[in-house]
Specification:
The protein is mainly α. Helix content is about 75%, strand content about 0%.
Length: about 70
């Protein structure tokens, strides 16, 4: 599932029917495969929307980054 999600996110043009067949063979239902695609697509949409509109990160993201770089 994770390999499929990464492929769908990074190189969606390479996703082939064999990728979906592999998920089915592993036991995923068509509904579960649809959900994987919907979640991946939603996150891609929201990220591009936020980036395109210049939406700043919430403070807790900046605070977390500061905490990891000040060790």
């Amino acid at each position: 599932m994770l390999d499929y999600a990464v492929k769908l996110t990074r190189e969606p043009w390479t996703v082939a029917p064999t990728d979906v067949d592999r998920l089915r063979a592993t036991g995923f239902s068509d509904r579960a495969i649809l959900d994987m695609n919907l979640v991946s697509g939603y996150y891609a949409f929201v990220n591009r929307l936020a980036d395109g509109l210049g939406v700043p990160l919430e403070e807790f993201w900046n605070a977390d980054e500061d905490a990891t770089t000040n060790d």
